[in-house]
Specification:
Largest sheet: 5 strands, parallel
Number of domains: 2
Number of strands: 9
Oligomer: single chain
Shape: globular
Structural class: alpha/beta
Radius of gyration: 21 Å
Order of helices and strands: EEHEEHHEHEHHEHEHHE
Bound molecules: zinc ion
Helix content: 25-40%
Length: 267
């Protein structure tokens, strides 16, 4: 077991060894300068040693190779940098009971006991922090636990599938990274109009992940029937947007949490 690096007194990364910036198309984790000067390897990331036959060999640095590999995993997650802030679980500040409940599940159950708890599906109006919590979860899983994750915007996924179809590219090329990742986020599920072909492809993806017991995290502005009376603007239900089949699969894979914008109990 590789030890996680402990850096002391670094204000830049708060002793985590990395920091995150939103630049270019995707959010990036960067190795902090306090690790670049790793005392084990001098910042090379590997150390040389001799084996029993006196051959020179190279090995991973016990001080910094784990954090280097976790940073790579975070950078493969493809979290869009369009969000105005870096979204970590610890920078989510709940103001309502629903938000407290959602944070508690994401942080104290899902992340802490990964992979023993189900994924989550966060429903609610825009601006309650659904995407923040989902991104916070995959950021922590990649950077702290080295788990491979993938972020995908639902609307963008459909657009990519349509484009692949029109260019004669197999849809599997688009789906493969989403099937392979241990944890995925599908953001804003149900956004846009999906036709039967798109629903079928989505069904393949969700079924595949269901069969391999991989965690799937969803955010959506559409409430399920159970929460239909919470919606101010009566709109479509999630079941209607994505179909009963995908809905019931997700119901088995995810803990459904509804986040209301205002909390009348707290007023
Ligand atoms: Zn540092
Ligand atoms: Zn090192």
């Amino acid at each position: 077991m590789e030890a996680k690096i402990k850096t002391v007194g670094c204000k830049k990364c708060h002793n985590q060894g990395y920091y995150i910036v939103n630049e270019n198309e995707f959010s990036h984790a960067k190795l902090c300068t306090c690790v670049e000067n790793c005392k084990h390897c001098g910042g090379k990331g590997y150390i040389s040693y001799k084996n029993e036959n006196n051959y020179d060999l190279l090995g991973k640095c016990p001080g910094c190779s784990l954090i280097r590999s976790n940073i790579k995993k975070y950078n493969l997650t493809k979290i869009p940098s369009k969000f105005s802030q870096v979204m970590m679980v610890d920078t989510y500040f709940p103001k309502t009971g629903d938000q407290q409940k959602a944070l508690k599940y994401v942080k104290d159950s899902f992340i802490r006991h990964y992979p023993n708890e189900p994924g989550f599906l966060l429903m609610g109006p825009p601006g309650v922090g659904k995407t923040h919590l989902a991104i916070g979860a995959i950021s922590e899983l990649t950077l702290e636990k080295g788990i491979s994750c993938m972020f995908k915007d639902f609307f963008l996924l459909l657009a990519e599938l349509r484009q692949a179809y029109s260019e004669g590219v197999a849809e599997n090329e688009i789906l493969r990274p989403l099937i392979d990742a241990e944890v995925i986020v599908i953001d804003e599920m149900g956004k846009g109009k999906c036709n039967e072909w798109e629903i079928n492809i989505l069904d393949q993806l969700i079924s595949n992940r269901y069969n391999s017991s991989k965690k799937t995290l969803i955010t959506t502005n559409f409430p399920s029937k159970e929460y239909s009376d919470h919606v101010y603007e009566k709109g479509e239900l999630l079941e209607e947007r994505i179909g009963e089949r995908i809905f019931s699969r997700l119901n088995e894979m995810c803990n459904f949490l509804y986040i209301e914008a205002e909390d009348f109990r707290m007023k």
